[in-house]
Amino acid sequence: MGKRFSILNLGIGDRELDTAVADCMKDLDDQEQLTGQLTQSVSDFTPGAILKGKVVRIAGDDVVVDIGYKSEGFIDKMEFDDIKVIEQSLAEEAVIELEVYLDQIEDASGLVVLSKKKADRIRGWERVMETYKVGDVVKGKATRKIKGGLLVDIGVPVFLPASQIDIRRVGDPQDWVGRELECKIIKIDNERRNIVLSRRKMLEDERDRMKKDLLSNIQKGEVRRGVVKNITDFGAFIDLGGIDGLLHITDMSWGRIQHPSEVLKVDQSVEVKVLDYDLDRERISLGLKQLSPNPWSLVAEKYPVGTRHKGEVVNIMPYGAFVKLEDGIEGLVHVSEMSWTRNIQHPNEVVALGQEVEVVVLDVNQDKQEISLGMKQAEENPWTNVEEKYPPGTQIKGKVRNMTTYGAFVELEDGIDGLLHVSDMSWTKKITHPSAMLKKGDEVEAVVLSVDKDRKRVALGLKQLSSDPWETDIPGRFKPGQKVKGAVTKLTSFGAFVEIGEDLEGLLHISEMSDGKIEKPEEIVQPGQTLELKILNVDPTERKIGLSLKAMSEDGVELPPEQTASVKVNIPEETAKSISEREEKKDE
Q1: Is 338 a residue whose pLDDT tops 70?
Q2: Domain 218-291, architecture per CATH
């Protein structure tokens, strides 16, 4: 207005006046626009604003940016992933424009503090919010592990809980850092600028879709590819895409395996055959060995009965050893088929795991997939010529190899033992245990009594080395009524055995020890005690000599002091009273 009045005062014409007014109004509009621009510009320079700027230089650890403010702003070089590119562009005098976040207009040093990362994060969040919604699938890289899960970069860092990383429980989330992940958005919080992802939900949804597709198309006998998800003692679970099928250990190999881990490992890709399935229970049985020919189909032709083969001992049981003839073909060598001569208690006495042995096929059952093998049949049977080598009457020398309660086993040759029974050790002495005559390791001479080739038995005799005294000597030397002396060798419940000659014993029955009733022989006699006795009978057929102690007193023979004392001391009071009453009746 001041300019208009000055024009009027100068006395300018109407035309010039109109032109001057127009110019004046234009100036006023320009001033108002400039004032508005200045006001708007000033309002932009408040902390939290995102501004456009140009990189002008690099000063030390900072990148200097012109944002149109009275002072230039500074950004820490660490915020630039490609600082070398910035340096190169500056050297080439190229214009570098970027958006920055105004952190502080003036910090303690009077500088304008800017942030490129904060600007990028805000713009990224805005782009994400414009692009995605809950339920959308996004891809991103796991950048680092934080409490409870992972940060995933999908343009902005978002949260993936550890429980949502996979369908199965994961170990350390750190193992997933650096991996590209595909996840589903399950939560968006606009106010807090927070997004939560779930890879598990995405996998479950995909798995459900694949499961429906698989169950609607699966066919028995078809071959499918899957991934080993879990291994147990009884088999492996194979992910066929939406559902797991069970590959049992018995369907992994035609051969013997101890554990599924010998064949498969977790995450291994494998082709399997569908053996059976139950749509209602969603169970699928799979087979691996069924993809290759069954070696048992030709076993009868490859391993006929009587043929010899070499194989490896792959398993040992108490009843025998399993020998692998080829992959998938094993036969059993029963413990009874391991040796012609040895009495083997356990197969590990003869074979060891991994040992190569020669065997003969004894039987083949193709339906049951069983082969019976023999090891001893691969060797000559030493019992074949035993009858010719050791006819009855042959005198042999051998070492006592073992003893039992009923006799001693004497080794005739390697693998051939003869049994020396206790009844064939002495003509006259009653032997209750072979240790009374022999001990293990003794060299003995004996006579072959009999040979049973089929039962693999050779009977030996020791007493047969001399003539039978019961036929030649004893009946003439010992007569009924004859008095003899001897030492008590042992006591039994029915009497005592008394040695009356070299290796010759007689029986003093408990009823012949005293006129009175006796409960136990030790009431009258003791082992080692010397007695004078009368022979009651001599029986060559039964090989027995009966002795009597009481007959000596009935004949009026005075017993030795030790015998008398023994009798008097050991006779019970009731027995003594009974004897006394009987004697009184005799006197009457």
Answers
A1: yes
A2: Beta Barrel (2.40)
